[in-house]
């Protein structure tokens, strides 16, 4: 089984969805550590309750972004992960951070990338008059919310949606899409496409035809 470390900043519901998937005996991955940049992140207690080692490393306890990243890298290294999953980790990773895990870091973003990268995705989707929204799991590269797409899922945008109601609807499909994407990578079905190699088609997680 592939060793997976999960980075969080908040409630950790995606981390829990991954942990639930990993609890199945035939799932090709296990969660070996959860690292948060917020001591108060709700996900830390949820991970600890499942016996997963946790680490809390606040940015403000370090003099610079580089020193904070070095501490997170050290915690990561102690977990010896094969795969790193960003699950609501609200920090942009530097090239130095990515290098040791290049091609092995996944991120979930609550929009249909490449639309609406960055913050306030749901309000921006509503303001743009979108009738569908969704989530994307992708390999992490240096650009924010860039990198080859692994899986997506779509949901409708309803006429009376607020950013909060839309976020909640998207979150429910995030919990299906991230485990699917992790399965694809951990099982060897998908890998980071190198040297102009064409990436295999990304599945739509909630495709009724699939
Ligand atoms: C999720 O909606 C995730 O897609 C989003 O934060 C939420 C975390 O929820 N991530 C980003 O916006 C990253 N740019 P969770 O802590 O309950 O998994």
Automatic annotation (TrEMBL):
Residue sites binding N(1)-(5-phospho-beta-D-ribosyl)glycinamide per the record: 12-14
Residues where (6R)-10-formyltetrahydrofolate binds: 65, 90-93, 107
Membrane spanning stretches: none
Active site feature: 109
Catalytic activity of the protein: N(1)-(5-phospho-beta-D-ribosyl)glycinamide + (6R)-10-formyltetrahydrofolate = N(2)-formyl-N(1)-(5-phospho-beta-D-ribosyl)glycinamide + (6S)-5,6,7,8-tetrahydrofolate + H(+)
Keywords, comma-separated and alphabetical: Purine biosynthesis, Transferase
Enzyme class: transferase
Keyword Transferase part of the UniProt annotation: yes
Protein's UniProt keywords contain Ligase: no
Coiled-coil residues: none
Matches recorded under InterPro entries: Formyl_transf_N, Formyl_transf_N_sf, GART, GART_AS
Domain of life according to the entry: Bacteria
Residues of the Formyl transferase N-terminal domain: 2-182
HAMAP family registered for this protein in UniProt: PurN
Known role: Catalyzes the transfer of a formyl group from 10-formyltetrahydrofolate to 5-phospho-ribosyl-glycinamide (GAR), producing 5-phospho-ribosyl-N-formylglycinamide (FGAR) and tetrahydrofolate.
Protein name: Phosphoribosylglycinamide formyltransferase
Source organism per UniProt: Rhizobium helianthi
